[in-house]
Amino acid sequence: MLDLTRVKAYRRLDETLHTAGQPTREELRALGTAGIRHVINLAMADSDGAIADEAALLRAQGIGYDHQPIVFTAPTREHLRRFGAALEQHESEPILVHCALNMRVSAMIFMDLIDRKGIAPETALPDLTAIWTPGGPWRELIDSVLQDNGHPPLPA
User: Fold this and answer.
1) What pTM does this model have?
2) Residue 64 belongs to what H/E stretch?
């Protein structure tokens, strides 16, 4: 049985939502034994460590797969909308959301919690900052989502 805490940059956010960096081929083959029923991958197909047959490895275990690649330097509101829709569709089942290093994922989860779920930023912020402090286009998008939901931008 796979110990999910061994997956790169792993975080368990609640009973069903898990996030991580890119799992290895062996970890992907064992996700079913860890109880994961769906995977959302935000990494590019050519990201470091990407597994070309990830979808097939997961489907062989009966795990659903959704690839929503986000160019790291160009996140958009459309990415957030699609991501939120995928999370909503699968939120009742154990899900792993991953990218290369859990940076895209942690930022998207943070924004989804604020935008779609109405969670207070101070409640969601620790899971983001445990992974990284966003800058550049990620900071701009996050600040925009925060402001649109009546919150101040991220602290400096």
Assistant:
1) 0.96
2) strand 64-67
